[in-house]
Amino acid sequence: MTRFSFETIAADCAAFGVPLENGLAERLAFYGEQLLVWNEKMNLTAITAPEEVVIKHFYDCLLFFKQVEVPQGARVIDVGTGAGFPGMVLKLARPDLTVTLLDSLQKRLTFLEEVIGGLGLTGITTVHMRAEDAGHAPALREGFEIACARAVAALPVLAEYCLPLVKPGGVFVAMKGASAEQEAAEAQNAIRLLGGAAPEVAPEQLPGGEKRAFITVKKISQTPTKYPRKPKEMAKQPL
Question: What CATH number is attached to the domain comprising 105?
Answer without folding.
Answer: 3.40.50.150
